[in-house]
Amino acid sequence: MKEQQEILEKIKKYQKIIIHRHQRPDPDAIGSQTGLAEILRASFPTKEIFMVGKKIPGFAWIGEMDEIDNEVFDDALIIVTDTANAPRIDDRRFDQGDLLIKIDHHPNDEPYGDIMMVNPDSSSSSEIIYDFYEQFKDQLTLPKVAASALLAGIIGDTGRYLYPATTARTMNVAAALMNAGADNSAIGQHENEMPIPVARLSAYVYENLEIMSHGAAYLILTNEILEKFDLKDSGTAGIVPLPGQIKGVISWAIFVQQEDESYRVRLRSKGEPINEIAKLHDGGGHPLASGAKAKDDNEVKEIIAQLDQLTKENEVD
Hints:
Elements: H1 2-13, E1 16-20, H2 27-43, E2 48-51, E3 77-81, E4 99-104, E5 115-118, H3 125-135, H4 144-157, H5 168-179, H6 184-192, H7 196-208, E6 210-211, E7 216-221, H8 223-228, E8 251-257, E9 263-269, H9 275-279, E10 284-285, E11 289-294, H10 297-313
Parallel strand pairs: 1-2, 1-3, 3-4, 4-5, 7-8
Antiparallel strand pairs: 6-7, 8-9, 9-11, 10-11
Protein name: DHH family protein
Domain DDH: 16-154
InterPro entries: DDH_dom, DHH_sf, DHHA1_dom, Oligoribo/pAp-PDE_c-di-AMP_PDE
């Protein structure tokens, strides 16, 4: 890809490089951000490399964020990983640098930046970062800490290699990262563990998930329910894949109420793409994994009806 060469040239040119990712990060957001930062730190030890965004204690084992002053952004190269659209970029100072690069694996429905390296066929942004390293491995260094971060991102975004985005290439990349020192078993176990409140919420999911006749399912988590389990929105990510483990569930939606009583919506599918539904509700994402918003209970009902209709139209006799 010509973008790879152009990005390497810009990295070599700039003394200060600041790496962002999306709000409410998952392992791939932190993993791709950290993996790239550690590759660059090892490859260009005289450069100033920073990672910014809200500190997430639960992901500190992958990478720690830096606190930097506004003036650091002057004349800096800004790289954003794993973020489909600009409004989702964590640390809103991303537009205060000299040049902006987007590295992502989501469909490029909302382009931004001066240079974009986007590959929706990759399992994760972490896989794209590894591809970038491999292309220039005669000029770049892959330390163990970077390999571990990238493997954490791949494991997270492939659902421990269960999702359709997992390809033979993905497995080859995982093997290469293991050869570089990443512990697949330890990382997988770390991502598989859950706090006790999330474990109890998991039981609630199985007990209260509404499964409709055509294979669509949904769960509504109100603020009252979250309070009962002593959880916030950020603590619900671990339960999102659970409906997919149920035989007969094809597509599902998890609605999580916010402080303003609107809902964050996580849409998933094992069959038909659901990202077009997400786009109708201020969202988007991958064909089988998307996010959206519902401003009130009426919009929640609308999304449920659309999900049910989608599974009905594509039901196999």
